Amino acid sequence: MGAAAGTGGSAAKPRASFGARLWQYQEERFPLMKHGPLIAAFGASAVCLSALLRGGTPDLVAMLVAILVLFGFFFQLRVPDEHKDNAEDTKYRPERPVPRGLVTLGELRTVAIVNAVVQLAVTAFLGWALVGILLLVWAWMAIMTKEFFVPGWLKKRPVIYMVSHMMVMPLIDLYATACDWVPAGIGGHQGFRLTLGGFLLVSLVNGTSIEIARKSWAPEQEREGVETYSKLWKPGGAGVALMAVFIIGLAVSAFVHVRSG
Fold it and tell me: Phi and psi at residue 187, in whole multiples of 5°?
């Protein structure tokens, strides 16, 4: 009886359901409560600006589709990162969800594929012409995962590496604005394309500023095997770079503000 009790006491704890594990994963790596309002504002502002420039009214369905698909895009960006960083995470950051076994890479791929099916369905519902832009975003994401087929060359050029990866932001923004102007047609504002281009540039600058900020740490926080801009440029240099990007973003935002009236 004692042996049986001992065996029962040492039995492995039943693994949580996939839904529970996925929820825990999002809390750690893709927190909806933290990023959700930002993504929703991102998608809604893109649709609203496009409607403003063409002299129309934002369509609620277009806004909902843009926000839903953008959520999918940002999750899909996380999944390739998990694959790309898995070896380093296992070695230097074993507390992360994938290395410690909370979820597997295969499970994340499955969720990303389901996401893609939903994205395709709602995009086609809004307008088949939008599917081409959806495929463009997916294509850029795909070659990003391969480091544009020159991983060694990019690794030695961190600024080019960052910009090449941040280019996905204006492409995502292009999709979001297209949820308005593709079904409605381009028209209205004389400078529609130029002003919209400025808005896409703002999204590139915003993405770059977030990327620099989240990878700039205090010296005592730096970890072996973790590449940061504060380690590359020193904390002061990273701060100067971040402020320079902020100023560029402010200037482009002012341009869009004036042009849009």
Answer: -175, -165
Give helix then strand counts, H and E, for the chain: 12, 0
Residues whose CB falls within 8 Å of the CB of residue 51, separated by 6 or more in sequence, listed in order: 57, 58, 59, 180, 184
Instruction: Evaluate whether 161 touches 155 at the Cβ level (below 8 Å).
Output: yes
pLDDT at 18: 87
Sequence-distant (6+) residues with CB within 8 A of 118 are 68, 72
Structure tokens at 70: 């953008």
Q: What distance in Å separates the CA atoms of residue 191 and residue 257, rounded to the nearest whole number? A: 13
Q: Around Cβ 77, how many Cβ atoms within 10 Å?
A: 18
Write the pLDDT tens digit of every residue in 34-85. 889 999 999 999 999 999 888 888 999 999 999 999 999 999 999 988 888 8
List the end-to-end C-alpha distance of the chain, in Å, as a whole number: 81
> By C-alpha distance, which of 212, 211, 205, 210 is closest to 173?
205
pLDDT, tens digit (0-9, with 9 covering 90-100), for 166-192: 999 999 999 999 999 999 877 555 678
Residue 206: phi and psi, rounded to 5, are -60, -45
What one-character DSSP code corresponds to residue 238? H
Long-range contacts, stretch 162-165, CB < 8 angstroms, 24+ apart: 162/208, 162/211, 162/212, 163/208, 165/211
Q: Phi, psi at residue 24, to the nearest 5°?
A: -65, -40
Q: Tell me, what DSSP letter sits at residue 191?
A: T
**Phi–psi pair at 222, nearest 5 degrees:** -60, 140
Q: How many CA atoms lie within 13 A of 99 on its CB side?
A: 13
- List pLDDT tens digits, range 96-107: 999 998 999 999
State percent of the chain over pLDDT 70.
93
